[in-house]
Specification:
- The complex is a heterodimer of chains A (372) and B (372).
- Chain A is mostly helical and 372 residues long.
- Helices cover 72% and strands 0% of the residues of chain A.
- The mean pLDDT of chain A is 90.
- Chain A is built from 15 helices and no strands.
- In chain A, helix 3 runs parallel beside helix 7.
- By secondary structure, chain B is of the alpha/beta class.
- Chain B has two domains: 141 residues, Rossmann fold, CATH 3.40.50.2300; 155 residues, Rossmann fold (3-Layer(aba) Sandwich), CATH 3.40.50.2300.
- Chain B has a six-stranded parallel beta sheet with strand order 2-1-3-4-5-11, with helices on both faces. In chain B, strands 7-6-8-9-10-12 form a six-stranded mixed beta sheet, sandwiched between helices.
- In chain B, helix 11 links the parallel strand 9 and strand 10.
- Classes of the chains: A mainly alpha (372), B alpha/beta (372).
Chain lengths: 372, 372
């Protein structure tokens, strides 16, 4: 059994590597086709990041990781929570308003705000969960619509509570008290900026995700429901309840997505807060195959591409959005590659079984000898 | 049953498919080696340009190098960013300055804005122009960290971006809007006019406030319809002609005969609607009777010109003359920062009345409100 696992590990590594190669080739073709400097672009993207950029990559990866795990919880039981984007925005807005009031001192304020964010994110997701369980509405449709509603609700409320500095044209919630602003860790030597203090939140969430889904009864039930609903019902799983729980858990985790940004960088929620994190999370969860460690690598790759792309306009004179092409192709290629690898793996498995069977029968005079 | 199936497929498929798979692997291997080789030369090569860039900046002291950081849309948006770009182009041709341009990506992280400014500074650019209030915090931080670099920020005068080496450029959009509001009221036959705002943010409210005040100064019973296309953080209202068209159509149908838009790229839709209804529209930011598509220019009564180009040019010119601009400079009617356009000759008959209002504002006899 041992050498077998090694081969399988190699195969699952081959998929992302293959996808990266394909993305590299296709992007190069696109660049060449429109007459952009191919070499210059790769030189910029693949340059060794400066310490400051390394910090940015880690920070961006932390946020992506939280988002991807939130999505992955749903994916593991075949629930497509497209609504992480809306859930995190509603949640971060609520948390920003709560934290901005500063009812509690320092760390307590932060912890309470994290709870507020999780509750609000979970509540927002529970709408879609309720619609699915009670009314049979596909969660894909309802979460997409809830994203649009979230945009409306948050902007309407933002205008109500907006705090606007003299001479400023942006609007935002009240800035959180200084005692609750996290200064970050000086993890990378030589960098002027710091890694978000809430990096540990991502680590914790990753660990809990791995532990709960892989090592508990609940996680087993959840995965079983995802694999085969009828089998899950047969083994005594209450499927509607499972849907509710998974969706709300996904939403609660989505609530945490904006927290490192809120407490480590922006200190309020406003018109310049980062958007689109939920959709990045979907891509990263797919790339990382819903695996706690896989998602971590995928987040770092995504963050690396995002941060490195910033120099494209300046160094290579190519639009920064190019990196969206690269990310898109990687995603496409990786999904296809996983499928190819899965088939190749199946074929190896089949021929192995065939060989073993042939070996068993080798006592009989006529041997078939499967081709190696 | 399982085993027979496996055996069957194993003995049946192998030859062609397996060689095909092997071939793919071989190709993949070759490409990945090439990718690694490229990556290696990329990382070793990149240190050169940034190194030489910074050394040249310290070498030639008086030479001005301008780094432009545009808002989302960048050069070519036919609106706000283009106006800034026009100022840069003038500086390039008249002063012979070096320039590098980069644009923001929609929904990006605060760190991405910091990084963009820092990249320009690292590349040796001595004067950084940040176009748009989203850069406020980023400019503030970069200005503190880089005392020898000079900054200009358009549309922000908040404490966030304040610094000894920062030129805060703001405009009295309300004053310019007052004049086009008066023009609209003077030209309206139905006593009913409209305002289409791109996104409901304080900046655009300033346009609305001035417009209404100007219209009421002419005809205190005039009816003004106001509509905003989107709510923040959804900024698509600045770039969605279809939304602009729908909003303006509604106003024309209800009896308005002049509609003023402060909606950037969405304004094209307002002009289309005016053309279809046989009514009039008012442009914004630049003289749109010159910049809009030729077939709709006939409906443009006038435009509220916001001279971002003048402000950007002033900043660069002044620096070239050895006098760095700092502090908040308000480009109002008095300073010639805002104005109304006369292209097309549609307001020639009321020009004297508008100029009288203009003079009254300049003299301080009329104070134009900033909120509706």
């Amino acid at each position: 059994m041992r050498p077998f696992d090694a081969r399988r590990a190699l195969l699952s590594l081959a998929a992302p590597v293959l996808a990266l190669v394909v993305a590299f080739v296709i992007t190069s073709i696109v660049l060449a086709a429109v007459g952009d400097p191919v070499g210059e672009v790769w030189k910029t993207i693949l340059a060794v990041p400066k310490p400051r950029q390394t910090v940015n990559i880690v920070n961006a990866a932390v946020v992506f990781y939280l988002s991807a795990v939130a999505v992955a919880v749903g994916f593991r039981m075949n629930l497509f929570n497209i609504g992480v984007d809306g859930q995190y925005r509603v949640a971060v807005f609520a948390a920003a308003v709560f934290a901005g009031e500063g009812w509690l001192p320092g760390w307590l304020n932060i912890l309470a705000s994290l709870v507020v964010a999780m509750v609000v994110g979970g509540l927002w997701a529970s709408i879609a969960a309720y619609l699915k369980v009670r009314r049979g509405v596909s969660e894909v449709i309802s979460t997409i619509m809830l994203n649009a509603i979230a945009t409306g609700v948050v902007s309407w409320l933002l205008l109500k509570v907006a705090d606007r500095a003299q001479g400023s044209n942006s609007i935002q919630t009240r800035t959180i008290p200084e005692s609750s602003q996290l200064q970050g860790f000086q993890l990378v030597p030589g960098a002027t900026n710091r890694v978000y203090s809430l990096v540990f939140l991502a680590v914790l969430v990753g660990f809990l995700y791995w532990f709960v889904l892989g090592r508990t009864r609940f996680g087993f039930d959840l995965r079983a429901t995802g694999r085969s609903e009828s089998a899950a019902v047969a083994s005594g799983v209450n499927v509607p309840r499972m849907v509710m729980t998974a969706m709300i858990a996904s939403g609660a985790l989505a609530g945490l997505v904006g927290m490192p940004l809120l407490f480590g960088q922006d200190y309020n929620y406003g018109t310049t807060f980062q958007s689109g994190l939920g959709f990045a999370g979907i891509a990263i969860a797919l790339l990382g195959r819903n695996n706690a460690v896989g998602i971590a690598f995928a987040s770092i790759l995504w963050a690396f591409l995002d941060v490195q792309s910033n120099a494209l306009q300046i160094q290579a004179g190519v639009a920064q959005e190019l990196v969206n092409i690269i990310q898109g192709v990687i995603l496409f290629a990786v999904v296809i590659a996983y499928e190819l690898i899965r088939r190749a793996d199946k074929r190896f498995e089949q021929s192995r079984v065939a060989r073993e069977l042939a070996a068993q029968r080798s006592s009989a005079p006529a041997t078939e000898g499967a081709p190696a | 049953m399982h085993t027979t199936q496996a055996q069957h497929s194993a003995s049946c498929i192998p030859r062609e498919q397996e060689t095909a798979l092997r071939r793919t692997m071989k190709v993949a291997a070759v490409v990945s080696v090439a990718a690694l080789a490229l990556a290696a030369c990329g990382s070793s090569g990149n240190d050169q340009p940034s190194g030489s860039g910074s050394s040249s900046s310290s070498g030639s002291a008086k030479k001005i190098k301008v780094g432009m950081a545009y808002d989302v849309g960048g050069r070519g948006d036919q609106s706000f960013n283009d106006s800034a770009a026009a100022g840069l182009d003038k500086a390039k041709s008249q002063l012979g300055v070096d320039a590098k341009e980069a644009a923001a990506v929609a929904g990006e992280n605060e760190a991405a804005r910091d990084e963009r400014l820092q990249q320009l500074i690292d590349a040796g650019y001595t004067h950084i122009v940040a176009v748009g209030f989203a850069y406020a915090k980023a400019v503030g931080k970069a200005a503190k960290a880089n005392k020898d670099v000079h900054f200009a920020i358009v549309d922000d005068a908040s404490p966030d971006s304040k610094g000894d080496n920062v030129d805060q450029i703001t405009f009295a959009e309300n004053e310019g809007s007052f004049l086009v509001g008066a023009a609209a009221a003077l030209k309206s036959k139905s006593g009913h006019i409209g305002f289409v705002g791109g996104v409901n943010v304080p900046l655009i409210k300033k346009f609305e406030a001035g417009y209404i005040a100007g219209a009421k100064a002419v005809n205190k019973d005039i009816k003004v319809d106001s509509q905003y296309l989107t709510q923040p953080p959804d900024f698509s209202g600045f770039g969605d002609p279809a939304k602009g068209k729908t909003a303006a159509e509604g106003m024309y149908q209800k009896g308005a005969d002049v509609v003023y838009h402060a909606a950037g790229g969405s304004g094209g839709g307002v002009f289309t609607a005016a053309k279809a209804a046989g009514k009039l529209a008012i442009g914004v930011d630049s003289d749109q009777a010159l910049t809009a598509p030729a077939d709709v220019r006939s409906v443009i009564l006038t435009s509220m010109i916001k001279k971002v180009d003048v402000a950007v040019y002033d900043f660069i010119k002044s620096a070239a003359d050895g006098k760095e601009l700092t502090g908040n400079k308000v480009y109002d009617l008095k300073a010639g920062g805002v104005d109304y356009a006369t292209t097309g000759g549609k307001i020639d008959d009321i020009k004297s009345k508008l100029d009288a209002y203009k003079q009254q504002i300049i003299d301080g006899k009329i104070t134009v409100p900033v909120t509706p």
